[in-house]
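User: Sequence in, structure out. Go.
Assistant: Echoing your sequence, followed by the structure tokens.
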Amino acid sequence: MKRFSILLAIVALVLSSLACQTLTGGGGGFNPTDVPQIDSGDVEVPTATPVTTDGGNITVGGDSEFPMPDDAVNVINMGNDVTNFQTKLSLEEGMKFYRDKFGALGYTERDLLTVTSATTFSMVFDGHESGKAIVVQGVDLGDGTVNISISLQDV
């Protein structure tokens, strides 16, 4: 009698499982490629070409008032106050580049504010016509490139 009860319980569970799959549409062999396409309507897809926005005064690509190495890529200008890019220069080469370039323009480095580590540097130069300090910061991205950000700041 005990075997009959166990067998009846197993059959009931199997039938319940099959019934649940039928009710919920399971077992139909869903194919992920059958996902319907969504009409984007009037949605504009951004492009990777250089873009300028009038409201935020941000330019992707283009020129900067600050000197940049010849291999500068991913240049982003945010108004006249911030330029960001990547270069293959090392941190030391980047620091030397800006010491040479800004020195030739008559800017003076604030040695007390120069900070370096194994993966970063930060330098401050005085002498910009705006009266603001030029802050140059570099971060080693670990893939052979260095991200450099140059900004005008009240320091």
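User: And one key feature?
Assistant: Confidence is low (pLDDT under 50) at residues 45-50.
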